[in-house]
Amino acid sequence: MARGRIRSKLKLSLIYTFGCLRPSADEGQDPHSIQGPGFSRTVYCNQPHMHKKKPLRYRSNYVSTTRYNLITFFPKCLYEQFHRAANFYFLVAAILSVFPLSPFNKWSMIAPLVFVVGLSMLKEALEDWSRFMQDVKINARKAYVHKSDGEFRRRKWKKISVGDIVKVEKDSFFPADLLLLSSSYEDGICYVETMNLDGETNLKVKRSLEVTSSLDDDESFKNFTGTIRCEDPNPSLYTFVGNLEYERQIFPLDPSQILLRDSKLRNTPYIYGVVVFTGHDTKVMQNSTSSPSKRSRIEKRMDYIIYTLLVLLILISCISSSGFAWETKFHMPKWWYLRPDEPEPLTNPVSPVYAGVVHLITALLLYGYLIPISLYVSIEVVKVLQATFINKDLHMYDSESGVPAHARTSNLNEELGQVDTILSDKTGTLTCNQMDFLKCSIAGTSYGVRSSEVEAAAAKKMAVDLDDHGEITSRTSTPRAQAQEIEIESEAENSPRVPIKGFGFEDIRLMNGNWLREPHANDILLFFRVLAICHTAIPELNEETGKYTYEAESPDEASFLTAASEFGFVFFKRTQSSVYVHERLSSSGQTIEREYKVLNLLDFTSKRKRMSVVVRDEEGQILLLCKGADSIIFERLAKNGKTYLGPTTKHLNEYGEAGLRTLALSYRQLDEDEYSAWNAEFHKAKTTIGSDRDELLEKISDMIEKDLILIGATAVEDKLQKGVPQCIDKLAQAGLKLWVLTGDKMETAINIGYSCSLLRQGMKQICITVMNSEGGSQDSKAVKDNILNQITKAIQMVKLEEDPHAAFALIIDGKTL
């Protein structure tokens, strides 16, 4: 099965209902009104030579994140150095030391100042040089750019111009802000990862205009021309307004056609795009700020100390000079050894004010060592050495990625030791965001004997608690024994079996066709079919292993398909209207190829929290297969579809307490007349143009996603990243306060806390929760009073604790916050 051949036949825009965008201009949408200030940009596609003269000469694609250049380094850096109170004082003192009034050699003031300022400037230069080298590396990346006559050649990013046609291949970054023209998929769909822009790991779907989606090979750009009129450069990542003039027609553009610099092409072999914004005009660079001059809290506090010492210095000098003026006026004539008959200006009794002012300047220089310049010399040397040690620290080197620690600026080294609170998310921060199918509930029966990390931690905790209270008995199944069994079982199962990415399930009752001997084999069959059919993934054959891998929008979906494959239901092919599955329906290993015609697909959104697919099987039956959050699925069940609701709910609670992510699976059989009537309404809503299109689609979807029959539920594990418990333990030992935000139930969150060492044995837990009550104004006040009462008791408990080494954990639910 050739990978390119499968892809080229797919029009993915027909798969997506909600996530793929709105009807294109080909279906009657009016072009945008592009006029007035803020909409002056004109881009001539495939004609970059038009942009070499003003007013169409735009910025180059060269980017720079450095703070200085050869011209601005000395003035900007000197300004930064003398912006510090101490350096400015030493500068004034060095200038005054040049004059004869100075009581000591001028070089004793100038040399230390030059050393301190010079060392700081050298440090700034080296740090800015590292930024420059990083810029050079990025600007030297290469992309395929249309040269002429349908030929694409590799060109450095910095030499790409506005109007160039660029070809970007899978897993490559976009070199500039591009207008998507076409992709390897027939209708111009592509998947984009925007993690570098907004931190989102789920892929986003982009779609080109239908009029340009046919430009899907190099030769098609031989004579391609067009004009884009759009908004001027701005920092808004989620908006874009413009029109494309092509083949004497005008087509409106929106953000769904824009591919932003620093985002990455995923799950798509290649795309073609025209460069709209380059370099510092791109949206990501518009959002970036110049590297600020960062100053640590110690440095700022030292400024206040300098101000205090300066006031003290001036006070001492004023007292000294006042005394000198007094002595000059009233006692100088009596001091014969100072030759009062031939007085000098400094000791002339006739002008004591002049003598006092001159002495004030001398005193300021003489007592100037009250402000120690040597302290600044030491601090600068220590900072540079600290940054060097950090960069060379083997304990901070990641061997997997080959990336060492890098102190981008040594100005903030001391801040590392002053962090007292860490706020962390759970998913993707503490966890890997790589899902493993671990357990499932089918027809009221729970399958999967492997324990999650959270279960193992909870079992160990229970064993220790009972041991502490002397409640371990000789029974064969104590929690401690269970914990040991979990470990031994896990080790025994892990050792012989080759690990499969996305699949951590182990239960002989479902593996190798044994599910056929289970009491509810028909329900299990339906469960596996939902896993294999209800998705938007694309299969790829690994020629080395002979197995299929799946390119999906989320890791959950990929893990479901991997699980279905291991259970004997291998999704291996998708065409525009069908999905094909190899089904193993006997324990002998013989498989049957089945085709399921995809009639409609209602894709997953964060608002819907569910996904459905309407298919017709080979027997002509029409089935609606649905998976989603249990709360959403349960409220849509038919009266006769709640047979397994009780046990499934119990299993879902158990999976949740084990720290697993759960989804409920259901189905519904449709008759021909009902489906035909619904499909007519759905098609009408799908082709509607207007702001209420999504609401209308949601309403029509609700009409079919009802009266469902519950089959079961899935449970996948998002494992902790390597070293997380040890890291959190070290941070806790250092006295840092850690907060972790999770969407789990409180009991689950506590178990997760133990698994990642956020909670430890012997730690006293303070739980602040809201009692369930129906909200009125009086209830709201009572709830607040109850929370305040809980907080007061918690504070008292901490104050009355006699053990100085006692550790406390604060656990707060969302409603309380």
TrEMBL record:
GO MF annotation: an example: ATP binding
Keywords: ATP-binding, Magnesium, Membrane, Metal-binding, Nucleotide-binding, Translocase, Transmembrane, Transmembrane helix
Residues that coordinate or bind Mg(2+): 425, 427
Swiss-Prot/TrEMBL GO biological process terms: phospholipid translocation
Transmembrane segments: 85-101, 107-126, 304-326, 353-377
Gene Ontology annotations for the cellular component aspect, listed alphabetically: plasma membrane
Required cofactor names: Mg(2+)
Enzyme active site: 425
Chemical reaction(s) catalysed: ATP + H2O + phospholipidSide 1 = ADP + phosphate + phospholipidSide 2
Subcellular location: Membrane
Location, primary (coarse class): membrane
EC number annotated for this UniProt entry: 7.6.2.1
Residue positions binding ATP: 425-427, 557, 604, 627, 661, 742-744
Membrane topology, as annotated: Multi-pass membrane protein
Source superkingdom: Eukaryota
Pfam families linked to this entry: Cation_ATPase (PF13246), PhoLip_ATPase_N (PF16209)
PROSITE patterns for this protein: ATPASE_E1_E2
Family annotation (InterPro entries): ATPase_P-typ_cyto_dom_N (IPR023299), ATPase_P-typ_P_site (IPR018303), ATPase_P-typ_TM_dom_sf (IPR023298), ATPase_P-typ_transduc_dom_A_sf (IPR008250), HAD-like_sf (IPR036412), HAD_sf (IPR023214), P-type_ATPase_IV (IPR006539), P-type_ATPase_N (IPR032631)
Residues in P-type ATPase N-terminal domain copies: 43-110
Keyword ATP-binding tagged: yes
Family: Belongs to the cation transport ATPase (P-type) (TC 3.A.3) family. Type IV subfamily.
Xref: NCBIfam families: ATPase-Plipid
Protein name: Phospholipid-transporting ATPase
